[in-house]
Amino acid sequence: RQAQAIPADPKHATRAMAPALEALARAQLGDHESSLRALEAARRAFDAIAPEQQAESVFGFSQRRWRFYESRTLSLLSDIPAAIDAEQRALDLYPTEVIGDRALLQLDLASCLVRSKEIQLGVGLARDALLSMPAEHRTDIFLRYAWHPAAAVPARFRNQPHVTEYCDVLRSLLAAGAGSQVTEWIGNAQAPPPWR
Q: What are the two backbone dihedrals, phi and then psi, of residue 193, each rounded to the nearest 5 degrees?
């Protein structure tokens, strides 16, 4: 919010980036209404920034970055149809060589699919996202995030073969040493247990 108070050219990337980050942060804190207001402010500001400010650079705020923040925020706000649409639009903008952001988007999309009762499709997408990542990229941040689709599975469906297969993939990645901190995090957080 303070970043938004700093005078800047209305066509500068920071005019859209600051409310987009605020929207995500407020969604993470569970402040639904403030997050939606910030997201709408970011949307208006993004539409107004100069085209050169939408460049794919450290100093710009590109369409794909905007869609990344928008989709993650909508997912956290549980606006599942809008989140799925935004995630798919964001994924369309990311080249395959951009591994990290694509993986987070795919895992968010997988969680949304599971929450919309597309359980097999969601855990399949999450599994494919993890297994398609080069091993050196399967760090703690991704393995922590990879539990979200599993956590979204209602208890009555957790013994379905595609769900147990996904959890087996996660456990095997942990056992292979990919993410030693994740094992500790799983024990201390709201992650699903290894159901078998």
A: -75, 160
Tens digits of per-residue pLDDT, 45-80? 999 988 888 888 777 899 999 999 999 999 999 999
Half-sphere exposure of 22 (CA within 13 A, CB side): 22
Residues in Cβ contact with 132 at an 8 Å cutoff, skipping those fewer than 6 apart: none
Tokens coding 168: 């087996």
Q: What is the mean pLDDT of residues 70-93?
A: 95
pTM (2 decimals)? 0.82
Q: Quote the DSSP letter at residue 156.
A: G
Crossing angle (nearest 10°) for helices 32-48 and 63-76: 170
CB count in 10 Å sphere of residue 84: 20
Query: C-alpha angle 125/128/133, rounded to 5°?
Result: 130
Q: CA 157 to CA 91: how far, in whole Å?
A: 28
